[in-house]
Amino acid sequence: DGGITQSPKYLFRKEGQNVTLSCEQNLNHDAMYWYRQDPGQGLRLIYYSQIVNDFQKGDIAEGYSVSREKKESFPLTVTSAQKNPTAFYLCASRDTPNQPQHFGDGTRLSIL
Amino acid sequence: EDKVVQSPLSLVVHEGDTVTLNCSYEVTNFRSLLWYKQEKKAPTFLFMLTSSGIEKKSGRLSSILDKKELFSILNITATQTGDSAIYLCAVDVGGTSYGKLTFGQGTILTVHP
Known about the structure:
The complex is a heterodimer of chains A (about 110) and B (about 110). Chain A is mainly beta and about 110 residues long. Helices cover about 0% and strands about 50% of the residues of chain A. In chain A, a hairpin with a 7-residue loop joins strand 9 (about 85-95) and strand 10 (about 100-105). Chain B is about 0% helix and about 60% strand. In chain B, the strands form 2 sheets. In chain B, strands 2, 4, 5, 9, 10 and 11 form a 6-stranded mixed sheet that branches.
């Protein structure tokens, strides 16, 4: 089945540790996105990529990094510089600029 | 700065009621407005609106856009407990590129039996 797979579903981070969230899609979509969701704040854009080997910062990129070495994969690293990483992280992709974004099931990150 | 505001932030109704959710926006480079429903995990797509005054319908849900007054509404008639969810409004600010979505805070809808 075609879709967007995020892993793991739950992740715990220790102080000073970097963690990487996986996002894989088999929809052959060019554009991929990472969002953060906090209670009562909707979704906020972290990074997005429109093509392999290219990506742009969103509204809250500080403390995060990404790579886009393959079309189907867009991993997000939450670095130790992100002081408040506890949130629900959602990955999305879209086929063309006139199509809606579709989302994965998310990763819930917590601090130990 | 692009801004999307939803109201109300939360709403509690009983089965059979009709609800109207609101979304207003101030953005540069508007391309479309989208509505999503989020239950436990992934937001699922409901509607994409690009033109003013044209209602989109799917079963008991409908939505319309007013590009002059910069708002949209989502109506749900004869609500059911399965409609309980967060409803998210987003505006696609695209230009000629793939663009990005700016989301509102969401409306939490609770439908009691």
